[in-house]
Amino acid sequence: xxxxxxxxxxxxxxxxxxxxxxxxxxxxxxxxxxxxxxVATTMVMFLLSSV
Length: 51
Fold this sequence. Notes:
Elements: H1 3-50
């Protein structure tokens, strides 16, 4: 394997990882927000039903 093939392969791997890293935090934030609002809504409904 020559140096140019190794370099282009490294760039494609780094590019795909950079794209995954760029979309990772936004999905994690959306999932965390969805779970926290679901838990908060469930807690409010239990508190209101116990009164």
